[in-house]
Every structure is written in C-alpha cells, then in structure tokens.
TrEMBL record:
<keyword id="KW-0274">FAD</keyword>
<dbReference type="InterPro" id="IPR036188">
    <property type="entry name" value="FAD/NAD-bd_sf"/>
</dbReference>
<dbReference type="InterPro" id="IPR050641">
    <property type="entry name" value="RIFMO-like"/>
</dbReference>
<dbReference type="Pfam" id="PF01494">
    <property type="entry name" value="FAD_binding_3"/>
</dbReference>
<feature type="domain" description="FAD-binding">
    <location>
        <begin position="2"/>
        <end position="341"/>
    </location>
</feature>
<keyword id="KW-0560">Oxidoreductase</keyword>
<dbReference type="InterPro" id="IPR002938">
    <property type="entry name" value="FAD-bd"/>
</dbReference>
<keyword id="KW-0285">Flavoprotein</keyword>
<protein>
    <submittedName>
        <fullName>4-hydroxybenzoate 3-monooxygenase</fullName>
        <ecNumber>1.14.13.2</ecNumber>
    </submittedName>
</protein>
<dbReference type="GO" id="GO:0018659">
    <property type="term" value="F:4-hydroxybenzoate 3-monooxygenase activity"/>
</dbReference>
Length: 388
C-alpha cells in the first residue's frame, strides 16, 4: 500500500488532519487500534474554543456542532461560600461552546467515510519504519492480515500511550512534566442541568466541577486520589461529596439523577520536544498533555493539526518545506501558553495535600484577586476562550 500521509490514531487530531488534507487534495490513510463504536462512545472533552469552532466550521464539519452545541458566555468560580461569575463575553467579546468530543469524532468519521477516506479500525501491531528517510513506512495487522503502508510522511496522532513518540529518534529529545498527585473522579448523570453555566469550585475537601453534555445528561467531576477505585464510591457517597463541595448558603442545590458512568483520571502536564524528526511528526496528546482544568487538550490537538495541514499543503503545492520545518516552534508557542494556563487553574483550584497554611491562604487571596480585579478576570477569561 502507498499513500502520501500515514496517520496513526483516529482521535480528534488524526481524523481532522485527514479531513483537512483531503480538502487540499492530499491523500492519507488513518490507522486506529479501537473500533468505530468505541471511539464514537468514549466520553472526554466538552469545551471548544471559538478558534476550534472556526476551524471545524471552515472544514465543513461544523453543522451539527452549531445546531446542537451550547454557547456559554461565562462560568462561575465558587469558593469561600460564594459564587462569582466570570463574564467571558463581557471581558473578551468571545464565548466557548460545549459540544462533546465524541460528537466531534462522529462528525469527522462521517465526513471521512462520505469522501471515501481510508480509515482502518481495529488495527494491531502498529510499528514505524525508516522514519529517518524520505520514504517512511508503517506496518500493522488488519483483519488478521499483516500489511505495510509506504508514505511521504508519518504523523503520530495516537495519544499519550501511542507508538509514534517512542519511535522518535531519542537523541536531542527533551520531555517536560509535572504530576499533581491527584485525579478527577468523573460521572455522567441523567438529570436536567444544575446550572446554565459551568461551575469551577475550590473547597478545602478538594476541587469540584459542574459541566454539561446535553439538556438531559450532565458531566460532573471532583478531585480524588488517582489511586482510588470507582467501586469505593457509592452513589450516595458521591452526591454527599458534591453537595458539600459545591453548595453555598444561597439555597442553590446540585441536581441529583441516575449516575450511569464513573471514571477516575490522573492529572499531569507533559510536553515532549521536538514534535518532528525527519518525516515523522507528532500532534495532539501524543506530544503534550494538559490537566483538564483549563479545558485545552482537544483545542490544542485541533490547532496542531491545523498547522500541520498548512505545512503539508505548502509542501505538496510548491515543494517548499518552511512551514513544516517551523511546525514545532509554531505549535509550541501555543502549547506552552496552554500548559501555563492549565497549570495555573489547577494550582489555584485544587487542594494540595502538602500545602502549608501559608500557601493555602495565598491561594485563597489569589482567587479573591481574580474575581475582584477586572485585569485578573480578563486574563483568566482571555486564556479560557483562547483569545490570543
Ligand atoms: P486521542 O483522543 O487520545 O486519540 C488518539 C487515538 O489514537 C489511538 N491509538 C492508536 N491507534 C493505532 N495504533 C496505536 N498504537 C494507537 N495508540 C493509540 C487511540 O485509540 C485514540 O483513538 O488524542 P488526540 O487526537 O490528540 O486528542 C486529544 C484529546 O482527546 C484530549 O486532549 C482531550 O480529550 C482532553 N480533554 C479536554 N480537552 C479540551 O479541549 N476541552 C475539555 O473540556 C477537555 N476535557 C479532556 C477533558 C480529557 C479528559 N480525559 C479523559 C483525559 C476531560 C477529560 C476527563
Ligand atoms: C467537560 O465537560 O468534560 C469539561 C469541562 C471543563 C473542563 C474540563 C472538562 O475544564
């Protein structure tokens, strides 16, 4: 088999890249280890920046997102027994859209298949070859048969646990990381929304977040021990924790409902550089991870592949590779800003077991500054909506 661009991974990064390349007349093959049903049902992100929406809309895959996504003009920060609204639109002129990542995945899979895109699910034994030459290749097994694709480029869009990053030449690589020592317990609930907008809550027992999926399905999270197990948490225990962390004395209550999914995720920040070596490039979570507090992960994956698509378009249009050569530098600028913002939100809103009383008071004062200073609220809002 031969193609121009071999893409490993059918997450938002791999699927969107394949679609953007197709719009520029560039052929690609996407290899995905999971099934279509599985990728279309995995619950992850929810918050899309305006820039992400624009890229999806301009690529012709935004119709359902525009019809079904919920535009949010602000969110609440809750701490010290009170809620404070951050007026995103008032402060920045922009808004965010809550539209589930797996719906973006469904829209992209449908668009690729409608255009006869080559999308291979349930592949195994994916391995990269000759990545330091101009004819890299990927071998894999599909439906029991061994196969090999030769390509001009191989793009690793296979997430944090994928095979592309380990296949990068190790010399000159530098990884940056931080583990926070806590996780998020996430639940999906059948109920009406408790709040029209998201609520990020800081509490001495730990962080909590109210988000949403649809008018009848809600997404809530609370800070937990990453080594804890969902079986240790009965529904009653979960609701008690959420009521304690989220409610104030103003009569507002968290809506309870049937909990139909529980999961625990670890929190880490990670950046692996460079994001390219010869004809192998990394995009999205394969190259960087942010803790979900800033809601940036999927947005970064989209902006990475937007840059890569422009570089590949320039290469195939007139044989020039300046944009491809500049990919790591251009992508890292935005990635480090998102790393900074996600680290800041995480540090400000979570309870750290090893924090001294001094550090706890300073954190509380920081939150007060953020909600009482227009300059600090604006900085938070600009970062959240991706205004720069
Ligand atoms: P993905 O989505 O992980 O996709 C990688 C794909 O590669 C496949 N794969 C392989 N395929 C073939 N061969 C192999 N050897 C393979 N190894 C792996 C995998 O099966 C998978 O299908 O990476 P991508 O495309 O870079 O996208 C990144 C985003 O998924 C991620 O950053 C976001 O979900 C992060 N995130 C959020 N981002 C936001 O922008 N806004 C949010 O509100 C937000 N909330 C979140 C989040 C992530 C969360 N979790 C679960 C970590 C909330 C949570 C709880
Ligand atoms: C979500 O809806 O899953 C979500 C929203 C905001 C975040 C993280 C996750 O910061």
């Amino acid at each position: 088999m031969r193609t121009q661009v071999a893409i490993i991974g059918a997450g938002p990064a791999g699927l969107l890249l394949s679609h953007l390349l197709h719009l520029n007349g560039i052929e690609s093959v996407v290899l995905e280890s999971r099934s279509r049903e599985d990728i279309e049902a995995t619950i992850r992100a929810g918050v899309l920046e305006q820039g992400t929406m624009d890229i999806l809309k301009n690529a012709g895959v935004g119709a359902r997102m525009e019809a079904e996504g919920a535009l949010h003009h602000g969110f609440d920060l809750a701490f010290g027994g009170q809620r404070h609204r951050i007026d995103l639109t008032g402060l920045t002129g922009k808004a965010i859209t809550v539209y589930p990542q797996h719906e973006v995945i469904k829209d992209l899979v449908a668009a690729r298949l409608a255009a006869q895109g080559q999308l291979l699910f349930e592949v195994t034994d994916v391995a990269l070859h000759d990545v330091d030459t101009t004819t890299p290749a990927v071998s894999f097994v599909h439906r029991g048969e061994a196969a090999r694709i030769e390509a001009d480029f191989v793009i690793g869009c296979d997430g944090y646990h994928g095979v592309a990053r380990p296949a990068m030449p190790q010399q000159g690589r530098q990884d940056f990381q931080r583990n926070y020592g806590f996780g998020w317990f996430g639940i999906l609930v059948e109920s009406a929304p408790s709040s029209e907008e998201l609520i990020y809550a800081q509490h001495e027992r730990g962080f909590a977040l109210i988000s949403t999926r649809t008018p009848t399905i809600q997404r809530l999270y609370f800070q937990c021990d990453p080594a804890d197990h969902v079986d240790n948490w009965s529904d009653d225990r979960i609701w008690a924790e959420l009521h304690t962390r989220l409610e104030n004395n103003d009569g507002w209550r968290v809506n309870e409902g049937r909990i139909f999914q529980k999961n625990i995720i670890g929190m880490r920040s990670f950046v692996s550089t460079p994001m390219q070596a010869g004809r192998l490039f990394l995009a999205g979570d394969s190259a960087h991870i942010v803790p979900p507090t800033g809601a940036k992960g999927m947005n970064l994956a989209v902006s990475d592949v937007n840059l890569l698509a422009q570089g590949l378009e320039q290469f195939y249009r007139d044989g020039r590779d300046e944009r491809l050569q500049g990919y790591t530098a251009a992508a890292l600028k935005r990635i480090w800003r998102a790393e900074y913002f996600s680290w800041w939100m995480t540090s400000m809103l979570h309870t750290f077991a090893d924090a001294t009383p001094f550090e706890r008071e300073v954190r509380r004062a920081e939150l007060e500054c953020v909600v009482s200073s227009r300059a600090m609220s604006t900085a938070l809002a600009e970062n959240y909506v991706g205004a720069f």
